Amino acid sequence: MGYRKIKENNKTVWHYFKIYFLSLFLSLSVFAVGSFFKPQFSCANSATCKSDLVVNVDNNAVGVFQGRKVNPPKVDLAMVTAATSVLGVHVSNEKKHIYVDLSRQTLHAYEGNQEIMQALISSGKWGRTPTGNFNIWQKLPVTRMAGGSGADAYDLPNVQWVMYFHNDFGFHTAYWHNNFGYPMSHGCINMRLIDARKLFAWADGPAGNQKGTAVSVCDQFKRPGTCVQNNPVN
Amino acid sequence: MVITRRQIELETFLLISIVVVGSLYFAIQKNNHQPQFSFASGISPVSAPAEIISPKITVAQQISPDGEKKVIMKVTENSDNTKTHDLSTADENGANEKFVFTKILDSSKSMSIPFNTWSPDDKYFFIQENAGENKSIFVFKATGESLTDTEKYFDAADIFRQKGTGNNFAEATGWASETLIIINSKKPDNTKGFSYWFEVPSKAIIQLSTEF
User: Fold this and answer.
1) If we measure between CA atoms, which residue out of A173, A171, A178, A153 comes closest to residue A64?
2) What ipTM score was computed for the predicted complex, to two decimals?
3) Could you tell me if A175 and A206 lie in one domain?
4) pTM for this model (two decimals)
């Protein structure tokens, strides 16, 4: 018997090295594959997230949500675009920041350290709302949103006061339900029309080199600087 | 002595006159003392100014999600410790107010307007009545009209209880659509039970696969 023999069953040190490296390789492979398949939060509205991120008015269409017909509100685009600021009547140089508290289903709008708006929202129920720190990258006064499949399919024209902050995840009205304070969306932040209109008028989209209003989606939030984010996307 | 017929007539007249005058006297005396009997307890007969107690009135209201309509609940505290709840709807600016319903509750009960009271299309709203652990959810038409030929409103919580789902009514959170109220239930052991839809106006109770 040579010195490399360890046990009576004739296993060599080399044999154990092979097993060790094979295990290491398998572990790394599983980790890499698992990371690849983790949720990417690419889309909230699977049918329109890439094609319909534009202003879209259709006053003759019938909406569908939860397998039921919904009557969308008639939208006068001229009136919508002429909507004036409500929260923004006072001029402030303070930095604007919107916080979303997913645990309490609330939205908080700040100018500096001053909270100027608080509202109940509905975040993702059939799709997760991504946590993280973002900026509003597009504002649309009205558009169409569609997605889901089977009984969960939805097609909702004339969705008003849309502000996207991460891909097609954004703030917008939800005329098809009134269950604010509870998750009800496919990942977006649903708001009452009266709240979404105020927020839209106050918040800024990108302009030149300036980013849009900052948005932080938190698992828990109390005040600026206390935004708890578990597994943020950025 | 001979009493003439004329004397008899005169004495009779005098006797009757005395009786009448005497009766009148006692009658007048009685009437003059009448007020004193009423205030025998010592309260001054001088009429005191009536104490005007203004009933305490509070008003609660909830605007619809689109800002077009509002439901108004005026609560008047009555002197017998009851409260009168008057429900009405109106446009956001107060115009077109329509009376919907009134109900008097004793002090052990209360009524409230939930945040998500309005159906998304502003056609219906619901009100919550609390009587200890027992809750009622009254669903009304916003126009004040009856929901059916015989029913002014539905009690969604009571209909849920009658359905016999095996779970107890817990809360109504809001509207899933124009005609569907979301009901959360709790199991007999008080843990969270299934969620349901209550459909207006069919009164159907539909169990959901997801919890709200």
Assistant:
1) A153
2) 0.79
3) yes
4) 0.78
